[in-house]
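Collaborator request, handled under Task 6.
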Amino acid sequence: MQATLLSILGLALLGTLHAQDSIPVQADFQQDKLTGRWYSIGLASNSDWFKEKRHLMKMCTTIISTTAEGNLEVASTYPKGDQCVTRNSLYTKTEQPGRFSYTSPRWGSKHNIHVVETNYEEYALVATQISKSSGSSTMVLLYSRTKELSPERLEMFTQFSREQGLTDDEILILPQTDKCMADAA
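Structure tokens returned to the collaborator:
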């Protein structure tokens, strides 16, 4: 029984490691160029919260800055009802440039974050594997330096999200809004 349990745990760990390895990371990642203001243009996820809140989601503003330790402070401001809410996260750097980890203080979930592709001046594609006691999920974000991106970039986001196993109903180009955009200076 114990050997079977260890085998199952070993396979689960191997599967998790393989899933993390299958997500690419930007070659020659330059963290300092990722800092500044971004707009969340696209969001894809197979999590339950995304399915529940999808119809309420709008574009938001994210400010990325580097800490003295070389980690990333990520502050996202988004409309929620009639107010603006800012969520701050600290992404801890890993040994691999372009890859970060984050643990949610609220939910205890572990996030393995990959900056998949960026040209730093126009767009950034970020994929996150999320693990928590109730299971795991995938999230893909498309950031832009402006509120609009070319159809080619939107298609790249959609295609990459599909490659991560997400379905079309789990992929969303976020509706534009002016609400909370100025508040996130």
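The cover message to the collaborator said: "The first strand starts at residue 36 and ends at 45. Residues 2-21 form the longest helix (20 residues). Please let us know whether this matches your experimental observations."
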